[in-house]
Amino acid sequence: MASKTPHALFPLIRKLESVTRLSASERHAIESLPVRVRTLSARQDIVRDGDLATQCCLILEGWAYRYKLLTEGRRQIFSFHIAGDIPDLQSLHIPLMDHNLATMTQATVAFIPHESMHALTARYPTIAAVLWRDTLIDAAIFRAWLIAMGRRPAFEHLVHLFCELYLKQEAVGLAGDHRCPLPITQNDLADATGMTSVHINRVLKEMRGRGLITLHRHTLVVKTWDELIRACEFDETYLHLQKRAVG
Amino acid sequence: MASKTPHALFPLIRKLESVTRLSASERHAIESLPVRVRTLSARQDIVRDGDLATQCCLILEGWAYRYKLLTEGRRQIFSFHIAGDIPDLQSLHIPLMDHNLATMTQATVAFIPHESMHALTARYPTIAAVLWRDTLIDAAIFRAWLIAMGRRPAFEHLVHLFCELYLKQEAVGLAGDHRCPLPITQNDLADATGMTSVHINRVLKEMRGRGLITLHRHTLVVKTWDELIRACEFDETYLHLQKRAVG
DNA sequence: CGCTAATTTGACCTGGATCAACTACGGTGG
DNA sequence: CCACCGTAGTTGATCCAGGTCAAATTAGCG
Question: How far apart are CA A112 and CA A119, in angstroms?
Fold first, then answer.
């Protein structure tokens, strides 16, 4: 491994190997996937609601998010994505998009044709299983968001989201020392939580006031992790994070 | 086909064939799955939050639902399931349950060991793909629920849910003529939509008043489908229903 | 018939929305 | 270096959708 130059799909391989051990041929098959790497500017749609997707998008760097627009300017954000994620993996089996995928920040992404993914998963059931699993975790996160929307008050809801985003980043080495990037606006937080940006602002003020967190210049600083966990009954099980199998 | 006695897994085969054509050996492999058929009474847990699942549960008759409990008696319902659904298919790749699955009504279910499912999907990528697709639609429905929770007022939200439940049942022949079973209480509707049962009751009254629907004795009667659709900007794309490939 | 769970209604309350400024700040161009 | 501008964040005042509490009323069901 150390002798090879890092492959563009390394983030994907790392993710798969955190769940299962890949054989040499499996690893080789992945590395042979045809990829098109692109750098996109912030706030740019990657696939749109209504599109027929023909490729998947692996995030190599930066943030992306998924959302849907309703009438009267309403917007619902479904998820935030970081390096290693394939936010539109679901399009592999449901090509007709029912929502949008866009960059949040400037981002580097790798596009992989569905065709190649289908060939890969048909030949290597293990790889198919791990990718499938990934989409299931995606769904588990949706369920967590449903709980937050339906049964948590605003304060708890937002704390819960922060815990999730911190842990997701920590798992891939993007967060640490109680601090992580959070390159999203209060308006985005509002559309992710079903609130208004005004109320997000007030809840953040309250969180600062209680000495739980700080959110400044797109950086989240967690003051007291334990209290944060307690403030929202956070149970990380649903994220199904592995203990860093591969460095 | 007509010469065979109906197999217990026929609802599953029908679902798979509505998406793809199965070869004789694929069909045979499914019919050879070891199943344990049971009839359960209403409101009985099938798998619990925290359990390590070892089998999947195919619903043959009746309703099931998934939910999670929080402190102070809060409950969030994630989904309702009918014949043909495998509500815990996700446990195949994430055995550690992060929520509960229970019957809503008395129900007949078929249990299939994970082991057999793994063997089946490893051998038949096509079957794996269709089952994977099914879990992706599950996720698509979660997204629709997120929108409803986050960005729809109560009335619209509930109308949307009714449209979804009607169409899901219609697709498998359980609804028709603007009428379908809805064997759930107003309290369940409340926990599914993030409201209180009092408010559900008032919204239902309003819906009756506007002549949109009737909900009585666990039967939903749609008075004017078009208005219902319009009242909640319903777009059925996310359900990815097939045009009845197999009868 | 009687018991329990489910539905319905009324009175009142509140978390978060709405509306409307105002402030801070990172560019950008002169 | 500063003036300008657009985006994002902050704050106050007021409002209302939906929650809470409590008490009937009705439906199932053994």
Answer: 12
Nearest CA in chain A to B76: A147
pTM above 0.85, yes or no: yes
Sort out which chain B residues have CB atoms less than 8 A from A135's CB and list them: 132, 135-136, 139
Residue A199 Cβ under 7 A from any strand C atom: yes
Q: Are B242 and B17 a contacting pair, CB within 8 Å?
A: no
User: In the beta sheet, which residues pair with residue B28?
Assistant: none
User: Is residue B69 within 8 angstroms of chain A, CB to CB?
Assistant: no
User: How many Cβ atoms are within 10 Å of B10's Cβ, its own excluded?
Assistant: 16
Give me the domains of chain B, ranges plus CATH numbers: 10-141 (2.60.120.10), 152-239 (1.10.10.10)
Contact across the interface for A98 and B68, Cβ inside 8 Å: no
Q: What is the mean pLDDT of chain A?
A: 95
Q: What average pLDDT does range B28-38 have in this prediction?
A: 97
Nearest C-alpha in A relative to B194 = A150
Q: Residues B53-65: pLDDT tens digits?
A: 999 999 999 999 9
pLDDT at B1: 46
